Amino acid sequence: PEWLQSHRESLPPEQFEKYQEQHSVMCKICEQFEAETPTDSETTQKARFEMVLDLMQQVRPLAFCPLVLST
C-alpha cells in the first residue's frame, strides 16, 4: 500500500517486513469475503470460514498488541 511504501525508509527493516506480511494476509482475508456469494453451499461456507480463521491466526502474531491487552 501507498503508506507502507512512503514510510519504508523510516521503519526498521524487521517492522517493514512485518507490515508487509500483515498486508498480505489481510488481502487474503478480504479475498475470501469478496468471493462469498448467496448461493454458496454449506460446505463452501464452512471451508471459507475455516480458511478465514486460519488466516486470522497467521496475522495475530504480526499484529501490534498493547501490553495492557496481552496480560
Describe the structure.
This protein is 69% helix and 0% strand. The protein is mostly helical and 71 residues long. The mean pLDDT is 88. The chain is built from four helices and no strands.
Instruction: Report how far the terminal alpha carbons are from each other.
Output: 32 Å
Name the shape in a single word: elongated
Mean pLDDT, nearest integer?
88
Helix content: 55-70%
Main traits of this protein?
single chain; 71 residues
Brief summary:
It contains 4 helices and no strands. Helix 2 runs antiparallel to helix 3.
What's the arrangement of secondary structure elements?
Blueprint: H1 2-6, H2 13-34, H3 42-59, H4 67-70
